[in-house]
Write a structure and sequence with these properties.
Blueprint: E1 2-3, H1 8-21, H2 28-31, E2 39-41, E3 46-50, H3 55-60, H4 67-78, E4 87-90, H5 104-121, E5 125-129, H6 131-137, H7 143-146, E6 151-153, E7 156-161, H8 164-169, H9 174-182, H10 184-199
Helix pairs in contact: 1-5
């Protein structure tokens, strides 16, 4: 499920989804029920990237539809957003056995798909949900120290958060996740203002203007 925009972007996205659904690059493809490409708006300003599909996601072919997904929906609603307003994806497109951590070889297989999703969506902000997502962009930092602190990756602002599943295992983390979600609207507004300012050329220096008689 996703919201469409016209032209080449939609065609590129459809091609990418077909590739992911038919991918056999690693052994995760052997036992999957469904690949989980991602879903949401192709015009999304915010792109959420998690770790990988779980049991419910593997069953439905959609990201974040289990308990962690329900918490994500709750957090989005608290800031006036719905799933179709954002784009949601994972580092891995197939479920690891018993929801174990992704292997480096599996991440290597899936990362080109994620790179193409980022290129197509072209979000203003990428929200990294959890350590594996964050490490894709900043491999030498820890999520516990970095969470809630936006930083620049190429031309995109990356905002690390704890994974919603972390709050299910440790409820004490939920206030931190709520706080980070609450800061998202303000972050988006600052990013918009910075982009608008960058597009406005500086006024010419009067001292360097030539008279019409020169």
């Amino acid at each position: 499920m996703f919201m469409l925009r016209g032209g080449l972007i939609v065609s590129d996205y459809d091609d990418l989804v077909r590739e992911i659904n038919g991918c056999e690059k690693c052994e995760l493809s052997r036992d999957r029920q469904n690949a989980v490409p991602g879903e949401g708006s192709l015009d999304a300003e915010i792109m959420f990237i998690g770790e990988g599909p779980g049991r419910y996601e593997d069953r439905d072919g959609r990201p974040f539809v289990g308990p962690a997904g329900h918490l994500l929906d709750e957090m989005l609603a608290a800031i006036g957003l719905k799933r179709h307003d954002v784009y949601i994806a994972n580092m891995l497109k197939c479920r690891p056995p018993r929801n174990r951590d992704p292997l480096p070889s599996e991440l290597d297989s899936c990362t080109p798909y994620l790179d193409r999703q980022i290129e197509i969506i072209s979000p203003s902000v990428i929200v990294c949900l959890g350590r594996f997502s964050f490490s894709n962009f900043f491999p030498n930092e820890t999520i516990s120290k970095a969470r809630g602190r936006p930083r620049r990756w190429r031309d995109i602002v990356v905002f690390p958060m704890y994974h919603p599943a972390a709050a299910l295992h440790n409820p004490k983390l939920k206030p931190a996740i709520q706080k980070d979600f609450e800061s998202l609207p303000g972050l988006i507004e600052r990013v918009k203002q910075a982009a608008a300012k960058a597009q406005v050329p500086d006024p010419p220096d009067p001292a360097k203007q030539l008279s019409m008689f020169d």
